[in-house]
Amino acid sequence: QVQLVESGGGLVQPGGSLRLSCVASETITKFYRMGWYRQAPGNQRDMVASITHGGSTDYSESVQGRFSISKDNAKNTIFLQMNSLNPKDTAVYYCFGDSQGFSFARSWGKGTLVTVSS
What we know:
It is a single chain. The chain is mostly beta strands. It has no helices and 11 strands. Strands 2, 4, 5, 6, 9, 10 and 11 form a 7-stranded mixed sheet that branches. The protein has a 4-stranded antiparallel sheet with strand order 1-3-8-7, with no helix packed on it. It starts with a strand and ends with a strand. The mean pLDDT is about 95.
């Protein structure tokens, strides 16, 4: 089972920026899609951004124009650049990777906490 490890979370003031990273224990080219979900206390886990094997990206409306997802295949890493952060962005951010072998499989990281507060 591939392992995904997130990093880069922390406390940031409103209007600030953070860059999250997610490192995979295997080549990320095995995933046809990777991305980020987030879950705030008391809320469901919602998709934030995703990137396909070919580099196509997708964003939720709430982060469109502020967040940017990218990947570095050589480093087996995906990134989430988060700008213009506001308190509503406070959540645990989870990295995921979707693969298709004999069946669909989704791998998850354990999450990294982002807190936006003054």
